[in-house]
Amino acid sequence: PRIVDDEEGGVLFLSSAASSSSSSGFGYGSMEKQRQRLPVYKYRTAILYLVETHATSIIVGETGSGKTTQIPQYLKEAGWADGGRVIACTQPRRLAVQSVAARVAEEMGVKLGEEVGYTIRFEDLTNTNTTMIKFLTDGVLLREMMDDPLLTKYSVIMVDEAHERSISTDILLGLLKKIQRRRPELRLIISSATIEAKSMSAFFQTSKRRRLEGEELGPRMEPAILSVEGRGFSVQIHFAEEPVSDYVQAVVSTVLSIHNQEPMGDILVFLTGQDDIDTAVKLLNEEAQSNGKNSSGLLVLPLYSGLPRAEQELIFTPTPRGKRKVVISTNIAETSLTLEGIVYVVDSGFSKQRFYNPISDIENLVVAPISKASARQRAGRAGRVRPGKCYRLYTEEYFVNEMSAEGIPEMQRSNLVSCVIQLKALGIDNILGFDWPASPSPEAMIRALEVLYSLGVLEDDAKLTSPAGFQVAEIPLEPMISKMILSSNELGCSEEILTIAATLSIQSIWVSGRGVQKELDEAKLRFAAAEGDHVTFLNVYKGFLQSGKSSQWCHKNHVNYQAMKKVIEIRGQLRRIAQRLGIVLKSCEGDMKAVRKAVTAGFFANACRLEAFSHSGMYKTVRGSQEVYIHPSSVLFRVNPKWVIFHSLVSTDRQYMRNVISIDPSWLREAAPHFYQHQPHNAIGH
Ligand code: ADP
Ligand code: MG
């Protein structure tokens, strides 16, 4: 690679380089000293003043400047948590919530779950009586509005990582703007790593509340903007000279060449998801074993959302002397988490993104190119402790001419079914007229309404049905899964469906990775059910229980032990929710027809039919006639039943269905007469 400048024509300077060195401060100075060394500390008084005097404050600052960990503490120190009030700080990612909460508890010297706590879906580590600072996902805060629409227990809500524009963040911003009108004493802080502050400010500007005469004491309604000057160091950018065909392989060779040629300093690699991260970790470790000289001293660690707590902690542990840490991460390390000691960044140029096409009514997770804004964020991770280097695995020509400037808000590339039902449950009836930070497409909105109507959760007048609509909204899962759970009540298979719902809400119950594919396939065969993956899950769950929840059993069967523990935990919670909703807990004792019907009742919109005479296993979606294939990880791969329903799609060279179950087409009309009424007769059933 050659050294070239960033498009601005100079070496990318992330802001004035300061003289101070690492802020990690391990082993020197107290925690308090460490806190004071963070860039945000100089703004402590200014931030507190702005929050005092403005309803909304927008705070922009480089990743690692201390926004997330410090501002909530400043607020607490200034009394915003007095009198039983709570300071909330939202994050788009669950892992960030856990990690940041743990860090703040440590800094304050308190036990996590008391003064400082966190809540993510299915995990609440807070104490109603003592928690003053609460970290939570933006999705969880949205859910809390169902019980407390004005979020009365919070004095300040900090919406963090707003630049990510996650769908929940955007909904939350729209709703908070409404709440503010009713609760002028509520303070909002919108924090972000990039300067998108102007549009954010404009969004909150329109909420200007006319001041009543004589009312001078309230906060100013126009948002304040504060920019925290970071102290990043220069980062040299290296582009690939030729386009890269296999970025996992390119990551491995780039890491090895940095390790062999560059001075000490940790490496942060951006890949797209658990699969390619596990692969890269494995290849690097193999390299370390076979080729001792080149790669000894490498400590290779994965970082992605499903990571167990113990492994998360390794990421933040200081690198042992004489070692070089290599963290291989999803874009969670782009801005959500700050890793110390990174000097080299390897950027694959891709991330996993959700895309939804309302015309074909298909949503999938796609490995897609990142934006220039993301590329700069990624590069910036190398300049935290001293001047660093960033290796981009794409050409400069590509960066300059083809990469888009900014990402598209998730709201505009998602299926809106969950979003619409949540707003409905909060009593927002005019969804098209809702004040969005970024408007979703009307087509996507209409599609969502149509599905919800077919699920029986919306009335003709687009209000939630009672009780079904409210029940579906209350279960903290996607509406289709919630509907499946409700239907299992009538079909007498709620115990089985709860297991399936819990399993579908985690990434995978299998241990995966390049090289173990054969063993994994064999293991799966032991559990494989002719009906499909959902029923296979039931077999694995049963086996796990019969083994006495043994980790050895998991190991032997290529089942992920952590994942199974999580399934048990989530299932327990869903069971309690189901009981609260009056669902009778009952097993169908092996009647898999009932189970498949319940799945159909929720997921009829994902029905597909095998193309006649198709030897390639091509299916078409019943609704949109889209070409889809069964994913090789499914137990129905190559079995190809005529009619199937999938849980989700992933797109690589083709659209692949993940988690597939076979059905009888006559169940579709039964489950959703409205949805399928316009289908030609030969399209479903005969
Ligand atoms: P920002 O939100 O502005 O990106 P943070 O508040 O997350 O910054 O991080 C500030 C500093 O706190 C980081 O530079 C890092 O040194 C430290 N830090 C944050 N989280 C952890 C953690 N889990 N373990 C150790 N140090 C951490
Ligand atoms: Mg942060």
Protein architecture, described:
The structure is a single chain. This protein has 686 residues and is α/β, with parallel strands linked by helices. The protein contains 26 helices and 22 strands. It has an eight-stranded mixed sheet, sandwiched between helices. A seven-stranded mixed sheet has the order 1-10-17-14-11-13-12, sandwiched between helices. It has a five-stranded mixed beta barrel with strand order 18-19-20-22-21. It is globular, with a radius of gyration of 26 Å. The protein starts with a strand and ends in a 10-residue tail after the last helix. Residues 67-68, 160 line the site of magnesium ion (MG).
Give the % helix: 25-40%
| Low-pLDDT ranges | 1-28
Strand order of the largest sheet: 5-4-6-3-7-8-2-9
Rg over alpha carbons: 26 Å
Average of the residue pLDDT scores? 88
Shape: globular
Count of discrete alpha- or pi-helical segments spanning 4 or more residues: 26
Report the oligomer: single chain
The main sheet comes to: 8 strands, mixed
Structure classification: alpha/beta
For the secondary structure, the number of strands is: 22
Q: What gap, in angstroms, lies between the N and C termini? A: 62 Å
* Cofactors and ligands: adenosine-5'-diphosphate, magnesium ion
Characteristic key phrases:
686 residues; alpha/beta; 7-stranded mixed β-sheet; 26 helices; 22 strands; binds adenosine-5'-diphosphate; binds magnesium ion
Helix and strand topology:
Layout: E1 2-4, H1 31-37, H2 44-53, E2 56-61, H3 67-77, E3 86-91, H4 94-108, E4 116-120, E5 123-125, E6 133-137, H5 138-147, E7 154-159, H6 167-182, E8 187-192, H7 197-205, E9 224-228, E10 235-239, H8 247-261, E11 266-270, H9 274-290, H10 292-295, E12 298-303, H11 309-316, E13 324-329, H12 332-335, E14 342-347, E15 350-357, E16 362-369, H13 372-380, E17 388-392, H14 396-401, H15 417-425, H16 442-454, H17 468-474, H18 479-491, H19 494-504, H20 517-527, H21 533-546, H22 551-556, H23 561-580, H24 592-603, E18 607-610, E19 618-621, E20 627-630, E21 643-651, E22 655-662, H25 666-671, H26 673-676
Parallel strand pairs: 2-8, 2-9, 3-6, 3-7, 4-6, 7-8, 10-17, 11-13, 11-14, 12-13, 14-17, 16-21, 20-22
Antiparallel strand pairs: 1-10, 4-5, 15-16, 18-19, 18-21, 19-20, 21-22
Helix pairs in contact: 3-4, 5-6, 8-9, 15-16, 17-18, 18-19, 18-24, 19-21, 19-23
Bound molecules: adenosine-5'-diphosphate and magnesium ion.
